[in-house]
Amino acid sequence: MLDFSINHIALSVKDVNEAVAFYQKVLGLKEIKNTASNSKTRWLILGQGKQLHLIPRPDAEIKTNKAVHFALATSQLDTFIKHLETLNIDYSDWLGTPNKDYIRKDRIKQIYFQDNNGYWVEVNDDV
């Protein structure tokens, strides 16, 4: 069997500068050098060597639904929820109940919110 690990997540975004600002403000991500090309794609570090690549596609139609998301884990979920509330960013449980977290059967607590391009992000406490 082959062995895989996540390297990066890539998202098409309407305005790369706005997207970088969003992820820096909301998740506190730091920008790193795009070592792959001289394109306007910008890279952010997620931690543990994992990256988020934001690819400018100003004319692309971005269609999403909650089932298409990426998930991040933190041991400080309640603090992060307060941070979202301070930023006036709506979050919900899986069913879409506003400003509510969800505790799965395996006792993992999670929330969902959308970035400024409409992509869904899950944040949970599965650390």
Account of the protein in words:
This protein is of the alpha/beta class and 127 residues long. The mean pLDDT is 96. The chain has a four-stranded mixed beta sheet, covered by helices on one side. It has a four-stranded mixed beta sheet with strand order 5-8-7-6, with no helix packed on it. The protein contains two helices and eight strands. The chain is globular, with a radius of gyration of 15 Å. 17% of the residues lie in helices and 31% in strands. The longest helix has 12 residues, at 16-27. The relative contact order is 0.20. It folds into two domains: 8-56, 2,3-Dihydroxybiphenyl 1,2-Dioxygenase, domain 1 (Roll); 69-124, 2,3-Dihydroxybiphenyl 1,2-Dioxygenase, domain 1 (Roll), CATH 3.10.180.
User: Which term fits the overall shape?
Assistant: globular
Looking at the structure, the CATH topology of the largest domain is 2,3-Dihydroxybiphenyl 1,2-Dioxygenase, domain 1
How many helix segments?
2
Q: Determine and state the CATH class of the largest domain.
A: Alpha Beta
Can I get a quick summary?
The chain has 2 helices and 8 strands. It is α/β, with parallel strands linked by helices. 10% of the residues are buried.
Characteristics of this structure?
single chain; 127 residues; alpha/beta; 2,3-Dihydroxybiphenyl 1,2-Dioxygenase, domain 1; 2 domains; 4-stranded mixed sheet; 31% strand; globular; VOC family protein
Note the topology.
Blueprint: E1 8-13, H1 16-27, E2 30-32, E3 42-47, E4 50-56, E5 69-73, H2 77-86, E6 102-103, E7 109-114, E8 120-124
Parallel strand pairs: 1-4, 5-8
Antiparallel strand pairs: 2-3, 3-4, 6-7, 7-8
